[in-house]
Design a protein that fits this description.
alpha/beta, 39% helix, globular, binds 2-phosphoglycolic acid
């Protein structure tokens, strides 16, 4: 089985002292300090957390990126090239909270994806249906439409995170069958859309915890996890990373 990727998404949480303590606790576990684990931290802390991760095998990830590629008069924006410059390896794109609260969609997300790839970084493109869309039986159509942002991408290692909106931060996890069938569909759809040397890995996200990680990470076509709440609790995140290590 290929290496699993576990990304902790801190969302809008953290302060210098908290971050230092959390990273210290994570790095005290050999199984966490391994290739295949990344921390997506808030933008103001990318540099300082990057420093804390130096000499470890954990990677740095950003939670968002500008749709504008080049330097310019874009007040408040952070480009993919800047994220590369401060040592990020991964960039989340299109997280459902940004789709919901900031109305990110379509072309804007495609530009972000292309900028991340052009900067030599790996995008973690988040897709997933709302409860209403699932209940109406429209989840596959919604996800396929979201994946159209990847059309023709022909290089780079693309990561897609399947995060059913109704499972994020709610404690409700999609059933193993639901995860398996959606991941299968995402891989097939990506193979249709990606070209050339682009490769694809699909993570699951939405209430992943130490208790359910083994079952979820063992499913076919689940190449890792995007972890929100549990990534802020060192014991929980360490357990999830250890579970992923055992499954390699
Ligand atoms: P959660 O968040 O693990 O707290 O459900 C996952 C995410 O939004 O990436």
């Amino acid at each position: 089985m290929a290496d699993k990727l576990v990304i902790g998404n801190w969302k809008m949480h953290g302060r210098h002292a908290f971050n230092a303590q959390l990273v210290k606790q994570l790095l005290s576990s050999e199984q966490v300090d391994r290739a295949g684990v990344a921390l997506a931290v808030p933008a103001p802390y990318l540099v300082s957390v990057g420093e804390l991760l130096k000499g470890s095998r954990l990677s740095l990830a950003a939670q968002d990126v500008s749709q504008f590629a080049d330097d310019g008069a874009y007040t408040g924006e952070t480009s993919a090239q800047m994220l590369a410059d401060v040592g990020c390896a991964y960039v989340l794109v299109g997280h459902s909270e940004r789709r919901q609260y900031l109305k990110e969609e379509g072309d804007q997300l495609r530009r972000k994806l292309l900028n991340v790839i052009a900067a030599g970084l790996t995008p973690v493109y988040c897709v997933g249906e709302t409860l209403e869309e699932r209940e109406a039986g429209r989840h596959f159509a919604v996800i396929r439409e979201q994946l159209s942002a990847l059309d023709g991408v022909d290089s780079g290692a693309v990561v897609v995170a399947y995060e059913p909106v109704w499972a994020i931060g709610t404690g409700k996890v999609a059933s193993l069958e639901q995860i398996e069938e959606v991941h299968h569909e995402i891989k097939a759809e990506c193979l249709r859309r990606l070209k050339g040397s682009a490769t694809i890995r699909v993570l699951y996200g939405g209430s992943v915890k130490a208790e359910n990680a083994a079952a979820i990470l063992s499913i076919d076509n689940v190449d890792g996890a995007l972890v929100g709440g549990a990534s802020l609790v060192p014991e929980s995140f360490s357990m999830i990373c250890q579970t992923a290590t055992k499954l390699i």
